[in-house]
Write a structure and sequence with these properties.
This protein has 500 residues and is mainly α. Helix content is 63%, strand content 3%. The chain binds cobalt (II) ion (CO).
């Protein structure tokens, strides 16, 4: 290994150690930190992010990258080393491109705009948020111009979350998906029959829920020697290979939120815990993209965790924890209750079918705004029209409409599409896994998860950021990303449940 490469990787590892510290501070902030700690924490995080930015954009890093990208030097690097250089060069470019004055202005505006969004949401008054929304959109346009893009300005945002992905590709996938999903949802609504769900929301003591959820996390493969499960208002996963923190959320009435938050975050955690030791601290031991990360959580949550086989194993165990609540209720009834599909206003409460329409709506608004085809002030109206078109529902106020998510107030544009991309990747990966593992359902029904986990390890986790998302999908499944896999899965599963 060349001396230059070793020095480069040492710098990369230092940066990633700082990032791991940053993540741990954020985890603490959302779990155990006392309220007043927020003042110190904001300063600590800002100091850290400056430090990370300075190291990443340093002259030293620039020189390493210049040297390591020379064709003669590249020839001598392994494909894993090349991937590390490519990925850090990409990070370097994105960090370096934006002038520090603009970075500071965005960060200042973000926190003001977040505060106004909270107020606006509480009072359901979009006008309070609008001036800050306009400002953040404008600043983000400047940022995108600074970063650069090939086709559309929106590509610059998308590339930050889903490296290499272009809006034109998303556009292609999503326009077909929308029509197909609207059709499926209207079929379900026409049938008009919803499964009984009262027995899954009749009260479940939280201490018992906790015990069950921890057991569940352990059973699917979460390694407690290298991680923890705690609670947070908005569940998330943070961490590194040897210390992965997941959070879940307990509802005293309803058993479902905690179960599926635990499985979802567990899926994220299995990815983090699944990188190879030898690549620790480098891009080769990091997730490919937000969408691929989400494909892991969604696969566990929906494709596995909302499947019949999964509850064949877990339902009798759940019943032992809550014998009264589930008395005279079969595993089929439970399966229906966790697969209740119905149009609703709020994204975070949506089921696995309608969820994607919530995402498409946000994507369409974002991309129109950044093509100057839509003004921020007109977003509530467009939002409400789309909800009517997709779900035949009326939005009673902006809190339950355009103001429901925090993302835009903090300038996270290009992030929403990764949720649906995650579902599409998951469907395509899962289709392939089932084909290669004919005994998969049988094993899951017996509570044996190592078959699927090892498949994910071999095909996805061990590869780190070796390939970009599109290439990974092609390598694993033999085909480029296609929404057919997702639509077939939805049609087959919910056609059976709802009889269409
Ligand atoms: Co997730």
């Amino acid at each position: 290994m060349s001396k230059k490469y070793i020095e480069f990787i040492n710098l990369v590892k230092t940066i990633n150690e700082l990032r791991a510290i940053e993540m741990l501070l954020e985890w603490d902030q959302q779990t155990y930190m006392p309220a007043q700690g927020v003042k110190d924490r904001a300063l600590q995080l800002s100091t850290l992010s400056t430090l990370i930015h300075d190291k990443l954009t340093s002259k030293k890093m620039g020189n390493f990258l210049e040297e390591l990208q020379k064709p003669k030097v590249q020839e001598k690097l392994s494909k894993q080393q090349k991937a590390n250089v490519r990925e850090i060069a990409w990070e370097y470019h994105r960090a370096k491109a934006v002038p520090s004055k603009l970075v500071k202005e965005i960060s200042k505006t973000k926190s003001e705009s977040f505060n106004k969004w909270c107020k606006a949401k509480n009072k359901s008054d979009f006008k309070i948020f609008l001036p800050f929304f306009e400002k953040i959109v404008d600043l983000k346009k400047q940022e995108a111009e600074a970063i650069g893009y090939e086709e559309k300005l929106y590509d610059a945002f998308l590339d930050g979350f889903e490296p290499g992905f272009k809006s034109s590709e998303v556009e292609n996938l999503f326009s077909g998906l929308e029509k197909k999903l609207v059709k499926i949802v209207s079929k379900i609504v026409e049938k008009g029959e919803r499964p009984p769900t009262s027995f899954v929301k009749c009260g479940f003591p939280i201490d018992l829920q906790k015990k069950f959820n921890l057991e569940l996390a352990r059973k699917i493969g979460f390694d407690f020697e290298r991680g923890r499960v705690d609670e947070a208002m908005h569940p998330f996963t943070a961490g590194t290979l040897h210390d992965t923190r997941i959070t879940t959320r307990y509802d005293e009435k309803d058993i479902r939120p905690a179960l599926f938050a635990t499985i979802h975050e567990g899926g994220h955690a299995l990815y983090e815990q699944g990188f190879l030791e030898e690549h620790y601290g480098t891009p080769m031991a990091q997730p490919v993209s937000f969408g691929i990360h989400e494909s892991q959580s969604r696969m566990w949550e929906n494709f596995i965790g909302r499947g019949m086989a999964f509850w064949q194993y877990f339902y009798p165990r759940l019943k032992k924890f809550f014998p009264k609540q589930f008395k005279d209720r079969s595993s089929e009834e439970f399966y229906f209750a966790i697969n209740d599909v119905w149009p609703s206003l709020i994204r975070v409460q949506a089921d696995e079918v309608t969820y994607n329409l919530h995402i498409l709506l946000r994507y369409e608004i974002e991309s129109a705004m950044f093509e100057d085809a839509l003004e921020p002030r007109d977003t509530p109206q467009v939002w409400n029209e789309k909800i009517e078109k997709f779900f035949n529902l009326e939005v009673p106020n902006d809190s339950q409409g355009v103001l429901q998510d925090v993302h835009w107030s903090e300038g996270y544009f290009g992030y929403f599409p990764t949720y649906t991309l995650g579902n599409l990747y998951a469907a395509q990966f899962f289709f392939k896994a089932k084909k290669e593992l004919p005994k998969l359902d049988e094993k899951i029904g017996k509570g044996e998860f190592s078959l699927i986990l090892n498949w994910l390890r071999e095909n996805i986790h061990y590869k780190g950021r070796l390939l970009r998302a599109n290439d990974l999908v092609k390598e694993v499944t033999g085909k480029p990303l296609d929404d057919d896999f997702f639509i077939s899965y939805i049609k087959e599963k919910f056609g059976k449940i709802y009889g269409f």
